[in-house]
Structure formats: structure tokens, C-alpha cells
Amino acid sequence: MKECLVRRILVPVDFSAASGDALRFAYSLASALGASIEVLHVMDPSSTMLDRAADRPSGGDPAAARGLLRDFVAAVASESVPITQRIEHGEPHDRIVSLARDEGFDLIVMGTLGRTGRPLALVGSVAESVVRTSPRPVLTVRGG
């Protein structure tokens, strides 16, 4: 049987409570496994102002996003788990899946609000899209 090693964990965040829950879970997992974490925020330039207000507290400002990401990670991090931070631009689902594949992450841990039916159809779900298309295992953490 092939050994399952998790050494690198990708944690996409949108600064929501659900992504905070996912980061805390990933941190606990990484600590237990001796893994490292890369926290990713994807700025979607095609988002409307409504999307930015609801999903992107940075309002599309890269400097604000860097500050938010730094503070978001600092609320969880200590020196026992190596954590790096990264901001990318593009469609969130595409960037998450391609980074996980191209840079050899072993696991993606991300938050989800657990929406179903009409709310999911109207808003869409990055987590659901990543689960369906990722070549890497995805662990979702339901927020709230």
C-alpha cells in the first residue's frame, strides 16, 4: 500500500469566519503531521463591487489584502508550524487548483459555508468547484 504523506497544506482564505475555521483546523493538522502551510488569498479582478463587499473585505486593494492576510494568519500562527502567505490574482477556483497541482501541495484545506440549493446556485461555491476538479485531496471545514 502506498504511504500517504501530508507535508504541504494549501489553505485558501477569503477572510470569512469559515476560512478562519479552516486555517485553525489546518494548523492543528500541520502541527500533528509536521507539515507546513501556505495561506492563499486570491483577488478576483472580475468581481463586481457587490462581490467585493460581500466576499473580499480588501475591496480589491492589494495593499489592504496583504495587511488583512498578515493579521488573519497572525491570529492563528505560532512558531511551531511553518506558515507562508501568498496573494494571487485571478479566478479563485482556477488559481487554487492550478497552484495545488503545479506546486505539489499534498492537501487543500478550505472553509465552506455549507450553502445548498438556491443560495449556492446564485452565489456559487469556490469550495464545491475545487472539490470537484482538484487533482489533490480537499478537506472542507464547515464554518459557523
Can you walk through the features of this model?
The chain is an alpha/beta fold and 144 residues long. The chain has one domain: HUPs (Rossmann fold), CATH 3.40.50.620. The chain is built from six helices and five strands. It has helices at residues 17-33, 49-55, 62-74, 92-102, 117-123, 126-133, and strands at 8-12, 36-43, 83-89, 107-112, 138-142. It has a five-stranded parallel beta sheet with strand order 3-2-1-4-5, sandwiched between helices. Helix 4 runs parallel beside helix 6 (126-133). It is globular, with a radius of gyration of 15 Å. The N and C termini lie far apart (37 Å). The model is unreliable at 48-55 and 117-123 (pLDDT under 50).
Key attributes of the depicted protein:
144 residues; alpha/beta; Rossmann fold; 5 strands
Structural class: alpha/beta
CATH superfamily: HUPs
- What is the CATH topology assignment? Rossmann fold
Largest sheet descriptor = 5 strands, parallel
Coarse shape: globular
CATH class: Alpha Beta
Average pLDDT across residues? 84
Helix content: 40-55%
How large, in whole angstroms, is the Cα Rg?
15 Å
Write the layout of secondary structure elements.
Elements: E1 8-12, H1 17-33, E2 36-43, H2 49-55, H3 62-74, E3 83-89, H4 92-102, E4 107-112, H5 117-123, H6 126-133, E5 138-142
Parallel strand pairs: 1-2, 1-4, 2-3, 4-5
Helix pairs in contact: 4-6
Compact summary:
The chain has a single domain (8-142), classed as Rossmann fold.
